[in-house]
Automatic annotation (TrEMBL):
Transmembrane segments: none annotated. This is DUF306 domain-containing protein. InterPro entries: DUF306_Meta_HslJ, HslJ-like_sf. The lineage of its organism: Bacteria, Pseudomonadati, Pseudomonadota, Alphaproteobacteria, Acetobacterales. Residues 163-179 have a biased composition (Basic and acidic residues). Residues 145-272 form the DUF306 domain.
Length: 278
């Protein structure tokens, strides 16, 4: 079994798989999108707006999301599968989600990543077009340090970023390059934390280096930004998002995990929410 964490320096998808952020799937039958079969009890086939359940595995690499009654499976070199959930049930402690040519089984059994040793709460089996793959989902356990991790912003003080839920590409690392088309789709800000807790990334418009140092068990300290930051002008909403991210980042004083989502918080309770990627 495998989870989504990666040591610093590993290449991005398609050569790696992703950390999952989002929330653990609810078993409540009262949520919208529930489906029933005769064999089991109903479970939620969708969740609250903006929430995304993620799972992944490797050998072969795959990445799965469940959001708004829709399963999305991505694999290197293959077409993305996007399927509506047709049946969702709980059976013998498992949560089972069926779609047209896709089946997902989530089991409440701990799952360990052979690459990082990280343990996650759930084991996930995905069967797509006749092939069954194994991986991990659910909450990460025992995270006390953020060193050597990479993150992408999914929400700025309660405002969800649609682009924050797609797998980052190398374009996220080069938004300050002359060839970058700043009028294109919104780039979600990113946060890379190195082995000593120092940060770098993209604010969605420009590269930045420094500004924060992460300690263990929730500690965050401000620092000066380094000399490698860029100063490209970005139009309209791109600039607004970049400025909002920068202001919140500079004001952050603590961090905590909400399931698999990293939350940076200011003294006046404003937040940045991020999901982990590798």
């Amino acid at each position: 079994m495998h989870n989504f964490q990666r040591p610093s320096g590993r290449p991005a998808f398609p050569l790696s798989r992703f950390a999952f952020l989002g929330v653990t799937l609810s078993l409540s039958a009262t949520l919208a999108g529930c489906a029933m079969t005769q064999e089991g009890r109903p479970v939620a086939a969708s969740h609250a707006a903006g929430s995304v359940y993620q799972a992944s595995g490797n050998e072969p690499f795959w990445h799965l999301t469940l959001a708004q009654n829709t399963l999305t499976l991505e694999q290197p070199g293959k077409a993305k599968l996007v399927r509506a959930v047709t049946h969702a049930q709980g059976l013998s402690g498992q949560r089972i989600y069926d779609a047209q040519d896709l089946k997902v089984v989530v089991e409440p059994k701990s799952c360990s990543d052979s690459m990082t040793g990280r343990t996650f709460a759930e084991s996930v089996s995905v069967t797509a077009q006749g092939q069954t793959m194994q991986g991990c989902g659910g909450d990460a356990q025992g995270l006390s340090s953020l060193n050597d991790t990479r993150w992408v912003v999914i929400a700025l003080n309660g405002q969800n970023l649609a682009d924050g839920h797609r797998p980052p590409t190398e374009k996220d690392r080069t938004t300050d390059q002359p060839a970058h088309d700043s009028s294109g789709p919104m780039m979600a800000p990113t946060l890379d934390i190195n082995a000593t807790g120092k940060v770098s990334g993209s604010d969605g418009c420009n590269r930045y280096v420094g500004g924060l140092v992460f300690g263990t068990k929730g500690d965050v300290k401000p620092t000066k930004e380094g000399g490698l930051s860029t100063l490209m002008a970005c139009p309209g909403v791109h600039d607004d998002m970049a400025n909002k991210f920068k202001n919140l980042k500079q004001a952050a004083t603590q961090w905590h995990m909400d399931g698999t989502t990293l939350v940076l918080e200011t003294d006046d309770k404003r937040t940045i929410r991020l999901r982990q990627v590798f």
